[in-house]
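Notes from the 1:1 (GR / supervisor)

We went over the backlog. Supervisor wanted to see one worked example end to end before approving the batch request, so GR pasted a single chain during the call. The sequence is below; no edits were made to it. Supervisor asked that the structure be written out right there so they could see what the output format looks like.
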Amino acid sequence: MEGQDIQMLSRREFLAKTSLLSLSAMVSPFSSAFSFGDTKRNSTNPWLDGNYAPVFDELTVANLSVQGEIPNRLNGMFLRNGPNPIYPPTPYHWFDGDGMIHALHLQDGKASYINRFIQTEGYLREKAAGKSLYGGILADRL
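Structure output shown during the call:
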């Protein structure tokens, strides 16, 4: 790629700039409820910042704005799951958290997105308490 600048993007920046989904165009209708989180929430822990920052909002967004065209024959769903603590334990390791499922659904040239926290017993207890109740996988090692 001689003569071209290569730019590294966080997952949030990538999603905002991707040619498949124009997430920047859909931010305004959801400005109060739509957020990818503040990437500077916890500058003391690299596993809670930038690309690793937890996502706090559960969203259901139909008919995402599309730049270009999604082929009508491209139908299906892309699922991603990973750790996503509602309240990070102290100390925190990037494997901690009950998790979140993200789904991008493509159907007949249209795209939609949904994400949800995984409703484990621990997640429900922490949500009810409004704070972290568990020490995480590093708690016994420090």
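Supervisor's comment: The chain is about 15% helix and 20% strand.
Batch request approved.
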